[in-house]
Amino acid sequence: MRIISLFVILLSISCSTKSISSTPSRTDVLRDVEGYAIASCLTFQSQPYLKDQGDAWASVIIQRMKGSPAVLFDIIEKVKTEIKKGNMTTIRDETNLKQDKVLPIFFCSEIIDVPDIRS
After folding, report:
1. How far are the Cα atoms of 80, 89, 93 from residue 3, in angstroms, in the given order?
2. What angle, 0 to 180 degrees and rounded to 10, lies between the N-to-C axes of helices 48-64 and 28-43?
3. 92 - beta bridge partners?
4. Helices (DSSP H) in 22-90: which residue ranges?
5. For the segment 34-49, what is each residue's pLDDT rounded down to a tens digit?
């Protein structure tokens, strides 16, 4: 029975490793576009540190990209539109139960999954 269990475990590990390694990785262009959307979102936050980090991240992307930065301007407008909707991620603040805690980093990291921005 132990041999069968061990075989099943090894087989499942082998199958999961193959499925992970066969998953296509993101292209450099997709990585940069997604990163630029997230960085842009950070630049529109009220916290100075997040603004600075977003600006620096966006600058790195623009400096290393091979094409025209003009293609990124549409992303900025879509990110602004999404932020204006006011759907900022919040959780209950455990130190002050009467108040919500906003999560701008989480919000910005997932902004690339908003259908209008993803397109």
Report:
1. 58, 48, 49
2. 150
3. 100
4. 28-43, 48-64, 73-84
5. 999 999 999 999 999 9
